[in-house]
Predict the 3D structure of the following.
Amino acid sequence: MGHTQYSLSTQDRNELDKLFEILEHRSNFQLGYPVSTHFDYSSLFRFLHYSVNNAGDPFVSNNSFCLHTRAFELEVLKWYARLFRSPWEESWGYITNGGTEGNLYGLYLARELYPDGILYHSQDVHYSVPKSLRLLRMQHTTIRSQPNGEMSYQHLYETIKIRRDVCPIILANIGTTMKEAVDRVARIREILAELSVFSFYIHADAALSGMTLPFIDGSPLFDFSTGIDSISVSGHKFIGSPIPCGIVLAKQKNVDKIARPIEYIGSLDTTISGSRNGITPLFLWYAIRKYGREGFRAMVTRCLNRAEYAIVELNKVGCKAWRNPCAITLVIPRPPKSIIWKWQIAVNAEDAHIVIKPDVTTELIDEFVDDMQKVPRK
Ligand SMILES: Cc1ncc(COP(=O)(O)O)c(C=O)c1O
């Protein structure tokens, strides 16, 4: 029996070439989303030849399927546990598909622990949270935001006070999507204490700022030592990865309550996805080993300096740019369509923002400022 040789048609190959050219070019002009392209994982490309799959609980090793990277996944989790002051023996987590899955996981745990709990989140929450709440059918209440995007603590106080009979589950934004505002975990804890609420759950959505704030002296604390119960961070944002990813960390004792043994995979079913990406743990591991805390601290400092430079330069040309303390996100008035298109700007009503992530150079900022200078002012 002869073997047919299958291959792509010339037209299909051209389609791919065209797509590649677009991505190559447009990657150079991306200021609107906090997704860095400052990475080179080419030495890991050889792993793409294998069907690697981290299905199951990363902490359980008695699995007959050997094509996984769970040892590397655990190393990454250990690094984050240390960064977020979660004692390793009490920690649990896994590498997710991104910040959304980490939020869903934190809220799922909270709901399993407190099925009648009410979730409180601010108006500035990322859309992944309301979606997770719909999926989980959780009761929730929206708390007003302050103009800088941070939660109104007065409104939180008044709202929890009315329902002190029900366990509060609080979603703390550790860097909101549009303004990178930080809900203060210490202030939330004070409110709970003032209201004599001793049973609660706090999930930290630290999609972007989970990788910046720990490296900024004097920045607001949000780690496990401050009383959070779980945290979600995106991996493809500040660190950067060609495949979306993230980490979720939680308390082992809480996860134990939802774990189910599954004979087929020889593991515990504790994660949301069954099959899980085995390549992204290698990317995160590689970045963490390459840069370490000092490397990330230097990267964050550089971004903050450039963010300040961008504010000064934009203000000079009449663009009212501002940022929250410790933020690498600059809020600007919504620019015209041509700028939104060229720079792939994220907008929300009258506001827009640009993110000074590790791949944003001063030359790029200068080009953006130059374009903004040409915008007719109202
Ligand atoms: C505050 C916040 N939370 C969650 C997410 C979702 O993260 P991901 O896109 O990694 O799912 C984002 C993404 O922009 C975000 O800004």
